Amino acid sequence: MNLFDVYPLFPITPIKAKGSWLWDDRGLKYLDLYGGHAVISIGHSHPCYIEKLTSQISQIGFYSNSVRIAQQEELAYKLGELSAYPEYNLFLCNSGAEANENALKLASFHNGRKRIIAFKNAFHGRTSLAVACTDDPSIKANINRNADITFLPLNDEEALENAMSDEICAVIVEGIQGVAGVIMPSNSFLLKIKSLCELHGSLMILDEVQSGYGRSGRFFAHQSSSVTPDIITVAKGMGNGFPIAGVLIAPYIKARQGMLGTTFGGNYLACAAGIAVLDIIKKEELIENSRKMGEYLYQQLSGLSTLKAVRGIGLMIGIQLSPLAAPVRKALLDDYQIFTGSASCKNTIRILPALNIQQGELEFFLVALKKILETKP
Ligand SMILES: Cc1ncc(COP(=O)(O)O)c(C=O)c1O
Questions:
Q1: Which of 240, 286, 317, 376 has the largest CB neighbor count within 10 A?
Q2: What is the number of the ligand 1 atom nearest to the C-alpha of 178?
Q3: Can you give the pLDDT at residue 377?
């Protein structure tokens, strides 16, 4: 059997990883500024993470959600504390798309409505409602086009005011638009969404799947404002590569038995990974490191006159070039062994490293980028 051929692949086979570094089957060493798409939060193969998962599998790896799983409660408690949302409730699932799918469904259970507002260039995942809320026609099949979604320009308060009504079920917005190329919603726009949602009985869903878990230099990107969303979704950095995702639900949204469910969500191993990630983020002050290293990188990049723009905050940085990004990313990988991310905006490189990246590692990247831009301005 062959693999279903949907991914354009780098011709590289990593076999080992540690911290912010990967090694391939030829022994070449790579700096990982992509984190497997913003997934690696605490660094590859952290010893405490390995120990937690190993000791969990030696006890019990799986049972269904028909029994009490104490690790879920521990995870929910620690997530509530570190994220500063202790009063919210947690529903555990397996991926970002699934978290958004459940968030949208929950909003509709809550107010009985079905119209959604999403934003231009948004990415919310590839399952049916999540992809319907994603602004990319090329990844939607006809069957995904039945949902009632209105796409508005991000940060356009007037367009939002005009579109809101008592028919809107939910407004879904990314903490920082990632796939689009690191585009930030303004604080005033986030507050406007929340106030209009309150006025119309709609729910505000904050997709922090990519921007959450310390990536922005705060636990959640939206915490640079005073907004409190009704529902927050998390995934990528939550398990450092072990599939786990969550929906954080405000206490006034009430649960009913059987309302949501999943076979694998919240299993012992996923929870062990999730707990290890939270413990390590807290103990090693990785949110602080994300903020500091992000500021350093942003400042250094802002001083490069060859760049068109630098966007983002913390360790979620978009570098907009004058030329197309693909040849520069290829040179970074081929000539300097540095992994970076792409974006739907074709001249943007995304930098999404582990939250414990060190300044020396960022310097290595900056030297390489400057050299490449001298030849490919
Ligand atoms: C903001 C955002 N939401 C949702 C998703 C979907 O997550 P997953 O691929 O885990 O389904 C992504 C993935 O890139 C994302 O960036």
A1: 240
A2: 16
A3: 58
How many Cβ atoms sit within 10 Å of the Cβ of residue 59? 8
Q: Which CATH class is domain 47-283?
A: alpha beta
Q: Confirm or reject: Cβ of 210 under 6 Å from ligand 1.
A: yes
CA of 234 to the centre of ligand 1 (A): 9
Is the CB–ligand 1 distance for residue 235 below 6 Å? yes
Report CA 211 to chain centroid distance, whole Å. 4
- Nearest alpha carbon, ligand 1 atom 4: 124
Ligand 1: distance of its center to the CA of 209 in Å?
A: 6
Domain boundaries, the chain: 14-46+285-375, 47-283
Which of the residues in the chain have pLDDT under 50? none
Q: What is the fold, at CATH topology level, of the domain defined by 14-46+285-375?
A: Aspartate Aminotransferase, domain 1 (3.90.1150)
332 Cβ inside 6 Å of ligand 1:
no
For residue 82, report the distance from its CA to the centre of ligand 1, in Å.
22
What is the whole-number distance in angstroms between the Cα of residue 222 and the centre of ligand 1?
17
pLDDT at position 45: 98
* Ligand 1: residue whose CA is nearest its atom 7: 96
Regarding the beta carbon of 227 and ligand 1, being less than 6 Å apart is answered no
Ligand 1, residue 236: give the atom nearest the CA.
Answer: 10
Residue 37 and residue 341 in contact, taking contact as beta carbons nearer than 8 Å: yes
pLDDT at residue number 323: 86
255 CA → ligand 1 middle, Å: 25
